[in-house]
UniProtKB/TrEMBL annotation:
Homoheptamer. It is a multi-pass membrane protein. GO terms for cellular component: plasma membrane. GO terms for molecular function: mechanosensitive monoatomic ion channel activity. It comes from Kushneria konosiri. Belongs to the MscS (TC 1.A.23) family. Keywords: Cell inner membrane, Cell membrane, Ion channel, Ion transport, Membrane, Transmembrane, Transmembrane helix, Transport. It is found in: Cell inner membrane; Membrane. Its main location: membrane. This is Small-conductance mechanosensitive channel. The chain crosses the membrane at residues 21-40, 60-83, 90-109.
Length: 271
């Protein structure tokens, strides 16, 4: 009985008295944090879309960092107003919350932890073009639970950060201003390989979407169905990659026909 009587006062002293809690200040902290995050989420992307291309990735990447910092600061500020912070209270709260929430929100918490890890490992940033599983698109926003992708078909896809644990992640530009695009051609022999390489290189050089600061590569290898040629180049703007690949493909086919060569069907992908 004495142990129960002694533990009850300790538990009751964990939470401050109602009269000692300044609810107005807490409400102002929550409101101020929400307004600051909302303002940054709108202002930085707006500035990024109108600023230099090199600054766009930095500005978009600053949004989730600011949101994480603002939320953490608000929690650190509010907790001492409600709870008497001692080592005993911390251990009691951490144990209770860990057991109760751990089972109910296992996947959600895993996504949150993955989101925190992603802030440091940076497998993706806002503005990167990534492929996660079968989903490929531009990272439009990075949240604590999920990221939002905008695909080339203008679809919006929400991908939980949980995918970080069990999926390979292909980042096409990894913070760079541009990314490599590839147009594939399969050509039946015989043909003049040197002239074909030069013609396809000219196709890339005369594209309206080409980034001239990056190299143009014409990669040739022998395949079972014929000769496989990859025309690799970089667009000036990453969002134009669909137009760029289409332009390379259409005019590349015209160049192949002009040299009297014949295309063959590409081999089926291995299942």
């Amino acid at each position: 009985m004495s142990q129960q009587a002694s533990s009850s006062p300790e538990a009751s002293q964990m939470i401050r008295d109602i009269g000692d809690i300044n609810f107005l200040t807490i409400a102002l902290i929550v409101l101020g944090t929400w307004l600051a995050i909302a303002l940054v989420k709108r202002a930085l992307p707006w500035v990024a879309e109108r600023g230099p291309n090199r600054m766009r990735l930095w500005l978009l990447g600053a949004v989730p960092i600011f949101r994480l910092a603002a939320t953490a600061l608000a929690v650190i500020w509010i907790v001492p107003m409600v709870i008497k912070v001692t080592m005993e209270n911390f251990l009691v709260i951490a144990g209770a919350v860990g057991v109760a929430v751990g089972f109910a929100f296992k996947d959600y918490i895993s996504s949150l932890i993955a989101g925190i890890v992603a802030q440091f490992e940076t497998p993706w940033r806002a503005g990167d073009w990534v492929k996660i599983g079968s989903d490929y698109g531009e990272v439009r926003s990075v949240g604590m639970r999920a990221i939002t992708l905008r695909t080339l078909h203008d679809d919006t896809i929400t991908v939980p950060n949980l995918k970080l644990w069990d999926n390979n992640i292909a980042n096409s530009n990894d913070g760079e201003r541009t990314l490599m695009c590839v147009a594939d051609f399969y050509i039946a022999p015989p043909f003049d390989a040197q002239r074909m390489r030069a013609a396809l290189r000219d196709v890339a050089l005369t594209s309206a979407w080409l980034c001239y600061e990056k190299p143009i590569i014409v990669f040739v290898e022998q395949a079972e169905v014929g000769t496989h040629i990859e025309l690799r180049a970089y667009p000036f703007e990453m969002r134009d990659q669909g137009h760029f690949i289409s332009d390379l493909t259409v005019r590349g086919k015209e160049a192949i026909q002009a040299l009297g060569a014949r295309e063959v069907t590409a081999p089926a992908a291995a299942g």
